[in-house]
Automatic annotation (TrEMBL):
Pfam families: Voltage_CLC (PF00654). Residues 428-459 are annotated as: Disordered. Its main location: membrane. InterPro entries: Cl-channel_core, ClC. This is H(+)/Cl(-) exchange transporter ClcA. It comes from the Bacteria. The chain crosses the membrane at residues 5-28, 48-69, 148-172, 184-204, 216-239, 259-277, 298-318, 324-343, 355-380, 386-407. It is a multi-pass membrane protein. The keyword Ion transport applies. Keywords: Chloride, Ion transport, Membrane, Transmembrane, Transmembrane helix, Transport. PANTHER family: CHLORIDE CHANNEL PROTEIN. It comes from Ancylobacter radicis.
Length: 459
């Protein structure tokens, strides 16, 4: 295939992903605001009737999202990033014709219900699906297809966060084992990310999604950020291990009773929390900015940290379509603010240092959980526009990553992919044992990789 043709396909993929990503972003923003406004405004509900109606709507949206995943595209559950990495290794298959609609509609319902999930996972998965469709239509070779998958995924991240540079680095750092590096595939990733960001900005503007203004801090305060990185390395390790524990236990619950029981319960809870305690719901990008501009007490921030941690685990374990980038960033922001509020009891801090701590915490927790410190640094810069905080962000991020590695933590997507493949192998063995004459079963288990619900075995 001629380089020019490949680059043209990459540009087209980026532009299409930009349109889909912007539509998904705007759709989630509209629906997540529309149904609460309808209940409290148009219907005028208050008190118990309001909470009951909100619980029913939240539960309905959660169950509907899971139904779409389980019925039409099991691999669309969770974030989808492990599925893409598996496809780039030749271990999974991107069935774009079913992933695209299920990921869009299912993700729209799940995120708008109030679940603590991010839109970046679905957008990355949809981006790779667009790339797979283009590769199929143009009959690309296996290597070119793998490179285009990476380009589509990067375009999805660029569209989700308006962060094209972080998207390119995500491919280089996160998929370094799978990416078929060459000048052509690398340029394709850059082109797709660039044009996805251009199209996204046409719809949503070019202002950073989590814009936060900060001043340059004295270098003498950098040890405080090393301490923050130490804490986040421990938190990130605990986060990953708790997430896997949650997936396993919710899956076991689904096998014993109903696969819809746990999502039903989570939907009921988040529906109520949308009115009772909105800080414990949704992806949290706007919440992170809001909290950074307020001055809440240590106890109030600690409560938000606890609630968002629990709700992130519960939401992701349902197996609906949704990512964890945004919840990680919002959780990190709250931890950084809590750390800053605690420091003020010990020593006086410069004005707005707590905001710098919040920004640095985003990179730190991202590096500790995802295992991509360079992406974490650049993503935080692009999201907040706080380039004067670069030094504190770098120190916090690399310290958190070092601590997580020292504790034996591994990148969460790597763990999730291995979990999916192990479950698939176990399912095939069970099929052979039960009926030796039957073809081996395949576990199309996106929820195994990204959620906790076991899905249908297909022979």
């Amino acid at each position: 295939m001629h380089n020019g043709f490949y680059y043209g396909v990459a540009v087209l993929v980026g532009a299409v992903v930009g349109v889909i990503g912007a539509a998904f972003h705007l759709g989630v923003e509209w629906l997540s605001a529309a149904w609460p406004a309808y209940l409290s405004g148009d219907l005028g509900l208050t008190g118990a009737p309001l909470y009951l109606a909100a619980a029913l709507i939240g539960a309905s949206m959660a169950v509907a999202s899971l139904f779409l995943v389980r019925r039409f595209a099991p691999e669309a559950g969770g974030s989808g990033v492990p599925e893409i990495e598996g496809a780039m290794e030749g271990l999974r298959e991107v069935r774009w014709h079913r992933v695209l609609p299920v990921k869009f509609v299912g993700g729209l319902l799940a995120l708008s219900s109030g679940m603590v999930l991010g839109r970046e996972g679905p957008t990355i998965h949809m981006g790779a699906s667009v790339a797979k469709a283009a590769a199929d239509l143009t009959k690309m070779t296996s290597q070119d297809m793998r490179g285009l998958l990476a380009a589509g995924g990067a375009a999805g991240l660029a569209a989700a966060f308006n962060a094209p540079l972080a998207a390119v680095l995500f491919v280089i750092e996160e998929t370094r084992r799978q990416f078929p590096y060459s000048a052509r595939t690398y340029i394709g990733v850059v082109l797709a990310s660039f044009f996805a960001a251009v199209v996204t900005q046409m719809f949503t503007g070019d202002i950073p999604y989590m814009r936060l203004a900060v001043d340059t801090l004295p270098l003498a305060l950098l040890p405080a950020f090393a301490g923050l990185g130490l804490i986040l390395g421990v938190v990130g390790t605990f986060f990953n291990r708790t997430l896997i524990w949650s997936l396993d236990h919710v899956r076991a619950l689904g096998q014993r009773s109903s696969f819809y029981l746990f999502p039903l319960g989570v939907g009921l809870i988040v529906g109520v929390l949308m009115f009772a305690l909105p800080e414990a719901t949704q992806g949290g990008e706007l919440l992170a900015v809001q909290l950074a501009q307020e001055h809440r007490t240590v106890l109030a921030l600690a409560l938000i940290v606890l609630l968002r941690f629990v709700m992130t685990m519960a939401s992701y374990a349902t197996g609906v379509a949704g990512g964890i980038f945004a919840p990680i960033l919002a959780l990190a922001t709250t931890i950084g603010l809590c750390y800053g509020a605690a420091l003020e009891f010990v020593l006086p801090l410069p004005d707005r240092m707590e905001v710098v701590l919040a920004i640095a915490a985003m990179g730190g927790l991202f590096a500790a959980t995802i295992g991509a410190p360079l992406v974490g640094m650049v993503l935080v810069m692009e999201l907040t526009g706080a380039y004067t905080a670069l030094m504190p962000v770098m120190l916090t991020t690399i310290t958190a990553n070092m601590v997580a590695l020292w504790l034996g933590n591994r990148p969460i997507y790597e763990i999730l992919l291995e979990r999916t493949l192990a479950m698939e192998a176990k399912a095939r063995q069970a099929t052979r044992t039960a009926d030796p004459a039957r073809p081996p079963a395949r576990l199309d288990d996106g929820a195994a990789a990204g959620g906790g619900i076991d899905n249908t075995l297909r022979g």
